């Protein structure tokens, strides 16, 4: 213990503070000098925090009905103007030359009216933008392959102050290139808006003003939620509306027109969807006749229950929504229709109150009103769902995304005969499908099956942000569809990352807490490792046998993820991007301990009521493995984590006996007092589940106390940086304050950085830059210089 402290002494210039720690004094610590000179590394071959934060941030691509063009919303921050601009990019889906920036100023939301017309939503107005796409010109390399032959025109306006969003248009499912073609489709636009309890778009502005001018600032509550994620809950709630949006005019010309009757499709219910705080267009889908959606069960409190039911209602409402779930399940998400509108699929968890239960794909047949739990034998959790567009096939094929071994992959499976055929009865021991993985790297989201059998999706990785991919050459096997070709369509980030030599990350597996169970981790090599920063793509076997690399030892950061039911996955992040840390000269070790997702449900469940148990055995074994196999200087190692990872930092701080030996710690939005957390967090079910009961129950009190970092403050001695968001209502700001108060009274070198306007995540680019600066500055003080 003493030598451990002496190491800190050598590596830091805070000797007075350490003395106090040794004497357990209660005197205030000397304020750390603000004058410490520190600059983050940045140069042409370094991927700096600034580089990362000013990269384009592409959203989800959406293909047109014909499947030849895709639009991608992109936002980008500029450190010069201190502003984020938003643009819509458009790219042909048949090549890798794109993307071409499409000049939609204020380009936030857009959707397809038909294959050649974009609806562009600016504030409360919808404009139609007609496109003229010349594939021949594109193939010959001409940049003017898309023209706008007609000035954008107003399609219609929503009442002022309503901020409509989450648009889904029934017409955009039809394949056609001319809006003049007569068809018998319903053209209905479904969207959401925040409205008062009168469910009326027309009174929103007036009621907003009345609330603003009520003469006091009190917020009054009789029931939960009080606050949720980063907002105090008010009277306004998210509701769905539908409205007609038709093509009007003859063959020679015409226009799209928005109707003026808004249908309150969820009237006479207490259904609110998309579900706050993260719900979006994934929470509902439209067919030619219906809307299917997920909403919190109105009969129980959303703060103590995760249950969400799936309902179906006609496009224009008018009937009481019909529930398709049993009403006894837990959360549901991602309800989608099959292309012919007969089938509905959604992801469903069995246990109410547990947000990280395994999500099973449920298939509902509107023809027979039967419900099937199709992936019940598959030990993966369904994240998103899309029906293949395979024409008249009687057995639909379904694509899903799911986490598996630190990737988010696309899987597919074909619905078995006993489900689809009315003549085949259910076998005694039915063989339920086990989906087949058809992608194997990166993190996939936003599946979109095209009418031509191709599949569009978004994928990011540790080495690049989200880009649009196209899978083609479908081949149908007995039980799944595979593709012979997967190509990247857009090129976001390629230019910006040129010459930066980002590391793909290398996986390692080691023995974990449970007998016979291997646990997975990632290693990222520091900038400058292996000569001239060339962390080679092909350097798969790592470093063990290379003796000249062995001579130099490097500082390291140990990453601990939040959740705790989450994982370090091969995907792009602007918050915890391992390459940004590696590029500042650190080895990054990121382990997926017990509780992590994508390694089987029992592994995820293993952290329940065991927060300070098995996960720390895994973390320690992973860390020791890394020390043994990579040239890490163990005297220059630090650890960092947010949320549950922040709990883990505070827990490690109080457990020097574990022997991690970190020289400095960084806790972002972590937990200091576990038991208090059970009363102050917004989603109370989370704590109740993970600690095995209500906070005052005997069992949960015991577990909460057993794994309470605040019980071990008497052993806190490692320098620690604390960052907390003032709008963090998941783990309240007082958790960060309490930990800082403890460290200061103990005289342990510590710094508190508060972001009053950030939630559980630091999202504003300028704040994120400051976050990175403080973190790297902190680490640099303790492990920056080679001790040798
Ligand atoms: C958006 O910002 C980026 C970065 O500052 C810039 O390159 C781009 O031209 C901007 N686009 C628009 C449409 O202003
Ligand atoms: C499309 O582009 C090609 C090549 O640039 C050009 O020859 C052709 O006239 C264009 N077609 C139309 C309809 O504009
Ligand atoms: C899918 O197709 C690709 C490309 O042809 C092939 O490499 C892969 O093994 C196939 N996967 C399965 C599960 O059949």
From TrEMBL:
Q: Which GO terms describe its biological process?
A: proteolysis
In this protein, which residues make up the domain named Peptidase S9 prolyl oligopeptidase catalytic?
Answer: 572-785
InterPro entries the UniProt entry points to = 6-blade_b-propeller_TolB-like (IPR011042), AB_hydrolase_fold (IPR029058), Peptidase_S9_cat (IPR001375)
Secretion signal, residue range per the UniProt entry: 1-16
**Keyword terms:** Hydrolase, Protease, Signal
| Record GO terms (molecular function) | serine-type endopeptidase activity
Name the family the entry cites.
Belongs to the peptidase S9C family.
Its protein name is Dipeptidyl-peptidase V
